[in-house]
Amino acid sequence: MYKLFEMLDFSLKYFRFVNYFLAAVILVAALLLTRNIVNISFSEKGISAGPESKATGAAPEENIMHYSTILEQNPFGSPMTMEPIAGTRTAEIQYGPLSDLLLAGTAVGPEKLSYAIVMDKKSPLDKQEIFTYGENVYNYGVLTKIENASIEIRRDNISYTVKMPIKYLKGNAAADQAGSMSGSQSLIAKKVGEGEYLLDSRKVRQSLDNPEKILTDARLLPNFVDGKQKGFKISEVINGGLYHSLGLRNNDILLRINELAISNPEVAIQAMSALRGMNRVNLDIIRNGNNMSMNYQMR
């Protein structure tokens, strides 16, 4: 009987301990739950009040120039300076005066085959260059139109006309007269047979040292056959000029120079300029519908 009471007393103490433990766990859980509820309620109030507090309490933005003093008193090296970004602007294009341009020659045809030879009088090299549609003529503007005796250059949405000086005009009577008077004295080629010529190498070099003669002693226009270019047609040949001295005449069609097909103005000028370094020169032409070869021996 006594043992029975001891067992009951032990059981009661055990259940009492379990009850205390469960009560403590429930109390801790209740405290944690209460804390979470309080945090959630305060966070929602903070979110709703955020924009207003941001609008009223936002700090003014500081200009980066406020830190210029740090750079000027640079503790990590030599002093530096800071310039505002807004102060650096892209430099505007400075065009030169059009009066400094000299139009020496043109070739008028399809847009892709038209070109103008222009010189910048301000250039110390006195050098002429070839320009086609859409190209920037030195620093004067974009070439937009090519005519027989003038070109148009566009800049700042305004078109300007540059005319060829009278002395460069092919049809100018004074030029023809001067050419005919000095023709016999300035010929660089002497005919020695049918299609055979002797060239004075010294006079050839003198003529080619003046590049404008390649385009101004005659007019070269693209020749088309069945829609395809086939050489250049020669017209307005000046008496005593480079082409006349080589035995070329108006309406001749220049096909090849030393087997090099003349397909564009650049090739024609390069081929003619190369004459100075050759001992023999061969020109393939069409004259009056017939193919001809003209052979030249340098001396």
Please state the oligomeric state of the protein chains shown: single chain
Taken from the alpha-carbon principal axes, the silhouette is rod-shaped
The figure for the number of domains is 3
At CATH level 2, the architecture of the largest domain is Roll
pLDDT < 50 stretches: 51-56, 170-185
What is the terminal-to-terminal distance? 153 Å
Summarize this, please?
The protein has 299 residues and is α+β, with helices and mostly antiparallel strands.
Give structural attributes.
single chain; 299 residues; alpha+beta; SH3 type barrels; Pdz3 Domain; 8-stranded mixed sheet; 3-stranded antiparallel sheet
Topology:
Elements (H helix, E strand, L loop, with lengths): L1 H56 L10 H5 L28 E7 L7 E6 L7 E4 L10 E5 L3 E6 L2 E6 L9 H9 L1 H4 L2 E5 L2 E4 L1 H8 L3 H5 L2 E7 L2 E8 L6 H4 L7 E5 L2 E2 L3 H9 L6 E8 L2 E9 L1
Parallel strand pairs: 8-14
Antiparallel strand pairs: 1-2, 2-3, 4-5, 5-6, 7-8, 9-10, 10-11, 11-12, 11-13, 13-14
